[in-house]
Amino acid sequence: MVDLAQCARERYRTPCTTSYWQETIPPDGYDKAGNLLETTVHDSIGDASYRYSYDNLYQLIHEEGVFSDDYSFDSICNRLKKNDSSYQVSSLNQLLS
After folding, report:
1. Around 95, how many Cα atoms within 13 Å sit in the side-chain half-sphere?
2. Is residue 55 within 8 Å of residue 61, measured between CB atoms?
3. Is the residue at 96 inside a domain?
4. Positive/negative CA dihedral, 59, 35, 45, 16
5. How many CA atoms within 13 Å lie on the side-chain side of 34?
6. How many domains does the chain have?
7. Is 43 within the bounds of a domain?
8. Would the pLDDT of 4 be above 80?
9. Is the residue at 93 inside a domain?
């Protein structure tokens, strides 16, 4: 069994591999801040490539792969939108919807 928490802790050192799939990160797959920019997952069905973009605060603003998602945030890093779904945040920065 794969320890996904361990994969997350070791992400910068080793891509995850299981008996069902393997992750490949190219040498330039991270930006200077350590954000993941690109990865490919290989499994029995085929390969799926993923690309990620970040804003100046290193928040994920776009991911492209099997599905594509766009995100937007307010000035204090609360996520306000994912694609066409909006989120409401209280004055205490609590997610309302």
Report:
1. 9
2. yes
3. no
4. negative
5. 5
6. 1
7. yes
8. no
9. no
- Global confidence as pTM: 0.75
Residues 42 and 87: their CA atoms lie apart, in Å, by 34
Look at residue 18 and tell me whether its pLDDT is greater than 90.
no
Label residue 70 exposed, middle or buried (CB < 10 Å: 0-12, 13-18, 19+): middle
**Number of residues in the chain:** 97
Domain enclosing residue 46, as ranges: 4-86
| Residue located via tokens 């989120």 | 87
Using one digit for the tens of pLDDT, what is the confidence trace for 75-92? 898 999 999 999 998 989
Q: How far is CA 39 from CA 7, 27, 46, 60, 76, in A?
A: 14, 10, 14, 15, 29
Q: Residue 75 corresponds to which tokens in the numbers above? A: 């000035």
